[in-house]
Amino acid sequence: MTTAVADTLEEHHDDHGPAKGIGRWLFSTNHKDIGTMYLVFSLCMFFIGGAMAMVIRSELAIPGLQFVHPEFFNQMTTMHALIMVFGAVMPAFVGLANWMIPLMIGAPDMALPRMNNWSFWILPVAFGILLSTLFMPGGAPAGGWTMYPPLVLQTGDAFPFLIFSVHLMGISSIMGSINVIVTIINMRAPDMTLLKMPMFVWTWLITAYLLIAVMPVLAGAVTMLLTDQFFGTSFFLAAGGGDPVMFQHIFWFFGHPEVYIMILPAFGVVSEIIPTFSRKPLFGHDSMVYAASCIAFLSFIVWAHHMFTVGMPFTGQLFFMFATMLIAVPTGVKIFNWVATMWRGAMTFETPMLFSLAFVFLFTIGGFSGLMLALAPADVQYHDTYFVVAHFHYVLVPGSVFAIMAGAYYWLPKWTGHMYNETLGKIHFWTSTIFVNLTFFPMHFLGLAGMPRRIPDYSTQFADFNTIASIGAIGFGLSQLLFVAVLLTSKRGAKATAEVWDNPTTLEWTVPSPAPFHTFDTPPKLDDSVGFH
Amino acid sequence: MSTHSDDRYYVPHGSHWPVVGSIGLLFLMVGVSTWLNGAAPGFYIMLLGFAIMIFMITGWFGTVINESVNGLYNSQVDKSFRQGMFWFIFSEVMFFAAFFGALFYARNMSIPWLGGDSNNFFTNLLLWEGYESTWPSNGPGNVGGDYDVMGPFGLPLINTALLLTSSVTLTIAHHALIEGKRLQVNIFLAATFILGFIFVYLQGVEYMHAYNDLNLKLTSGIYGSTFFMLTGFHGMHVTIGAIMLTIIWFRVIKGHFTADNHFGFEAVAWYWHFVDVVWIGLYVFVYWM
Amino acid sequence: MIRNLILSLLGLTAVGTAKAEWALNMPKGVTDLSQETYDLHMMGFWWCVGIGAIVFGVMIYSLFKHRKSSGVEPAKFSHSTTAEVIWTAIPVVILVLMAVPTAETMVKLEDSRDPDMSIVVTGYQWKWHYKYQDTGVAFYSSLAQSSLEARRKGAETDPFAVPNYLLDVDNPVVVPRGAKVRLLVTSNDVIHSWWVPDLAIKKDAIPGIVNETWFKANEIGTYRGQCTELCGKDHGYMPVVVEVVEPEAYEAWLQSRTENAAVAAN
Ligand code: HEA
Ligand code: HEA
Ligand code: CUA
Ligand SMILES: [Cu+2]
Q: Is B174 within 8 Å of B265 (Cβ atoms)?
């Protein structure tokens, strides 16, 4: 043991590069490598989850059952959502956080690098377990990603695997966010005061708090499902004095903050990109911080807007309706500030900017439908219809996913050291934007006309819009292959400068492109051009 | 070792422990799941996973302890560890919050509703006629059969006293550590984990009593569910905490800690106080009120 | 289909009729409350359109005017407290304007007191059971035979050839026009949800709990809906059909039902 320690001591300050072979990835404590792994993992999951969405959309393209049985359809819906939410969007943001936060605050790495590695390597285990349920007797979980009892208790052999994979995802997220918080609080360069921190760092800090607060609650909720199923507890059994609706309360106490977990870092990414390409500082940096904090706070007291039809007492409904509507205010501040950032700037429209602009437009549309959903009596009509599906795909796909794309294009030159193919990027943007609207906009009409969600087949009056949505979905899916093409050709582009873009203001642009394996071994000195004043 | 001063960051090398941990979790989770599904090998897979986890934890912590003892860490690393521990404990608090939430929901919402409160007149009339809401309750279906309630006095009260005392002894040990009184640390730390283990033992006795004499079981409706899940998870945490205290005790004997560098000690102490605070919540809301 | 696409691009405004095949908007329905719900929906919609027009208008203007290629120099400003106060305050006002009428409707929606009749609705995997309190009429209501055949995977029947595909049942609920009907909704297994868009009623059917809701239909007709809470594999196949008839016809129906029941009992 002593020799091992001596080795560590000796090597410690050598300027070592990455380890060789697979060990580099398996044992990595380097935030850039771990970030890359997160991003690659997330992309794989996006494709798997997307393939499931393609199954859903193919089956729904025309009335009648063509391809799959209803049981399998429900499995697809459930797995699609779980994989997209926990496997694609969240890890993508954690990947961006890993790569960028240390660079943006002038830290050499994440604060707890070994734990960082574990946070990542739990994910393949979690999703390996989850995906394996597709091959089990009784099939994969089919009770919806919301896992409401008693239905979810009818899951076959997959049931405990579902529960434990959710536990693992939770453990991974909690460790990841502990790392983010500690890094941000403790590893900033000496001059990087809290209010100088870039928005992406800020939104992630807030997101990390949300994660630590709600992931354990989800773990508790699914643990109760497990004990109800296997150990005879009565949490969700009315005969025993419990209540199936109690699960919904606990789930949505997690679930609502969860949706902001998926959007706050997106706000952060967009808040980095819009100023850069407007060549103007972010408008109202501080109020952006307060708005994000406000959103995070409010997110804890609105959960029951998912439950306006469960028969809550009147005052409860009223409270949750008002609280939900209030979220429009801080979110509006963000939208207005972005517009004010563009105002009288000198904009150019490279791919990251295009994705960010589409984000602002389309997320707002998703936000508007969210606001309509918040009106409780109207939600009685909207609830569990495709109107809701339209709402959340607008905030999640051209919302979160577009922001991830924007971030990927924005930082890709910093990661690879080469400019990506701008033409390909623009084509990717335009096809994605057109098809995403073709997919999800008609769903508003379907919902209003009365089509429930989570059904494998529907009445003939819903046929036309479903066909349009399915065509859009396939177009959107295929467009994502262009993104892969961009990634595969990314090494062929021109060499990127350290700055990459015109005069960006954050610290990551002060290190060379590609960013060296180790950066900021000693804290950087901030000059006045860095940060916001 | 001037390079380990505060203006130089410490970044550890690659480590294989996390991957070992993931493999451990894989076996553990797959094992438990197959076992719950009634497949015989599941149990052994679970044990294997458990063994790998123990191996991983000892190995990982061993590495960290070695690095710490060899002075690799500076005050910044120390701070990171502290904050990490703090937020870990906070996440545990939220885990318990879910179960406390279930308890409050059952007591203030679902049980009264099943008894016809609020807008639930017909729930009571049509489905559970004659059921009157009370607490404790195993629900209108009398799930698990008649049972007796676990009162707040007797064992639970003794246990409260034990845990509170253990918090005091731990604080004394901590102060002694800061003042460099090694013997006092040894004695009071030992007292702390012994009290902890006695607590766990008495909790076991209480469970036996509940199962054998009171017919109070995990299956006794919502009362049994909340009672055993809350006290059970708490007991699990006490057990873990007491084991950690024991390890820390050995580390104290080995002289791992100094007056101004004893993060390991403090982390465990925080954990122990957290377990203590949860117990007070439990005692008040589960046993007493 | 092309027409629908164009209509959809024109937006919701293009719709007047609720029951047309290509409905784009929420039905106005046949109860006072469904009308109110519709109005709330449109109110929310128009507020959003209005705010959207302003926000997107400003943004699009900026996108055209403030681009580097047109040779502008970027301004330097980075905050304005006045502006921020204004765009915090105005949304608050708008929200209050929206919340007040919404709360009023909610109060009415909750008021299920003094009904003319009550029906206990119980969800089963995968059918509904209706029990008319006071009269003892009770029956199951499942997907109609005509849909059953067409719904199978690889079925020969074309769904388009089936009238009201997936929205028809063997035994519809029959209620008199103008009567305040209270529904007592519960379930026998998992959670279901009872929904008829034209009545603007959706209530979860939760095992062990009875939820109340009510409606008072103003027009006779057949109104169709579906189970809207995922309840297992045949969740898509448990429709709800409500027939609103004149009170006399309702009495007659009740009569025949009771007789049928008596015959069946013998
Ligand atoms: C990234 C994810 C995300 C985000 C950001 C949001 C944002 C919002 N959501 Fe959404 N939501 C989901 C993801 C998300 N949601 C998901 C996944 C579901 C379904 C889960 C399931 O059932 O499976 C859901 C469901 C859902 C429901 C339940 C519907 C139902 O099942 O019946 C409701 C109801 O209130 C709701 C409301 C809102 C509101 C008010 C916002 C607000 O935050 C929006 C605020 C934004 C704006 C309003 C636009 C910009 C503001 C301005 C320009 C200012 C001026 C505006 C006004 C004054 C109007 N959402
Ligand atoms: C972040 C979250 C996220 C994301 C990104 C998506 C992305 C998509 N979603 Fe998802 N969805 C949810 C979260 C998400 N969804 C949730 C939470 C639910 C609710 C589940 C529930 O009810 O429980 C849901 C439910 C849901 C439904 C309703 C199912 C039902 O109610 O039965 C539908 C239906 O159209 C749908 C479609 C799509 C489509 C077409 C995409 C597309 O954007 C996907 C595009 C991506 C790809 C297609 C992959 C990449 C490309 C390839 C693999 C190349 C090959 C492509 C082809 C062969 C065409 N989703
Ligand atoms: Cu019954 Cu869905
Ligand atoms: Cu929500």
A: yes
